[in-house]
Amino acid sequence: MSKYVILVNDLSDESSKAIADAVARSGAGWWHWMPHAWLLDDRQSRGVSYWSRLCTETAPGASVLVFAAAESPAAAGFLPATWHPWLIEHWT
After folding, report:
1. Which of 51, 49, 33, 54 is nearest to 41 (CA)?
2. Is 92 helix (H, G, I), strand (E, B) or coil?
3. Looking at the DSSP assignment, which residues form a beta bridge with residue 9?
4. In 10 A of CB 6, how many CB atoms?
5. CA-to-CA distance for 17 and 78, rounded, in angstroms?
6. Residue ranges, the chain, pLDDT below 50
7. Rounded Cα–Cα distance for residues 43 and 53 (Å)
8. CB neighbours of 74 closer than 8 A, spacing ≥ 6?
9. pTM for the full predicted model
């Protein structure tokens, strides 16, 4: 299982939805509460190139940056309580 952070810039609402739909169809677990940012829990460990390609093919012209995250990444922040359950289950 691998964890990834996807950051995308220059997205229309339509392109953002298209990426969200493509990520959902991939079967990976995902968190997308912040615009143009996704956290993934990919049990297939498909790699940063796979996710970058998925985004650029889904939203041509968008700027895309994908990071592989540590298995238990450290994080700090202040988020609404409704954002917590997925993070606790998949990223801690």
Report:
1. 51
2. coil
3. 63
4. 22
5. 25
6. none
7. 18
8. none
9. 0.86
Report the distance separating Cα 4 and Cα 71, nearest Å.
10
Which amino acid would we find at residue 37? A
Neighbouring CB atoms inside 10 A of 37's CB total 12
| Contact present, 32 and 52 (Cβ < 8 Å) | no
d(CA 19, CA 90): 20
Cα distances (angstroms) measured from residue 78 to each of 11, 37, 81: 25, 16, 9
Q: What is the pLDDT of residues 39-53, one digit of tens each?
A: 999 999 999 999 999
- DSSP states along 18-86: HHHHHHHHHT-EEE--STTEEEEEETT---HHHHHHHHHHHSTT-EEEEEEE-SS--------GGGHHH
Contact 35, 12 (CB under 8 A): no
